[in-house]
């Protein structure tokens, strides 16, 4: 899936032209921030979890960390990250490029409140060297999110 499915999804909302293919890696928050030229907290990182065998993506600001107690309150189970060798098979994007755009059917997407402090954020676009510039309302529009949650410290 990767870049092609992410771009197809973003194109449905008129955001295809916002995708940037970078010369350098954007596979981590710090690398992405450096490549895009923004503060690390403006990177909208996508964290992949398994909740009762369902792939769940939580988008959070770059420097936010999962609060295990809040996660358990929200999802009624302990936070269990998807193992890196299973992410692509379950979600549709490889680690480093995981994003909510063009994911496999059945993947649930949530937006963490930590993103709300930013006007513009930069999630990946399906590869470890891509980013897409979106306002938070635009991210809401094209991410297929279920709801806003508060699971970060």
TrEMBL record:
What Gene Ontology molecular function terms does this protein carry? aminoacyl-tRNA deacylase activity
Q: Which organism does this record belong to?
A: Baileyella intestinalis
The record lists the lineage as:
Bacteria, Bacillati, Bacillota, Clostridia, Peptostreptococcales
Pfam families, per the entry: tRNA_edit
Instruction: Output this protein's name.
Output: YbaK/EbsC family protein
- On the tree of life, the source organism's domain of life is Bacteria
Q: Which residues form the YbaK/aminoacyl-tRNA synthetase-associated domain?
A: 24-141
């Amino acid at each position: 899936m990767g870049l092609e499915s992410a771009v197809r999804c973003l194109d449905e909302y008129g955001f295809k032209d916002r995708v940037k293919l970078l010369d350098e890696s954007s596979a981590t928050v710090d690398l992405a921030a450096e490549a895009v030229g923004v503060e690390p907290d403006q990177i909208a990182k996508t964290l992949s979890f398994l909740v009762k065998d369902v792939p769940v993506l939580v988008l959070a600001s770059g420097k936010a960390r999962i609060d295990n107690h809040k996660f358990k309150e929200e999802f009624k189970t302990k936070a269990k990250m998807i193992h890196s060798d299973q992410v692509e098979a379950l979600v549709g994007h490889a680690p480093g490029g995981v994003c909510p755009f063009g994911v496999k059917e059945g993947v649930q997407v949530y937006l963490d409140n930590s993103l709300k402090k930013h006007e513009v954020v930069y999630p990946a676009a399906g590869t470890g060297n891509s980013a897409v510039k979106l306002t938070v309302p635009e991210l809401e529009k094209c991410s297929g999110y279920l709801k806003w949650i508060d699971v970060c410290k």
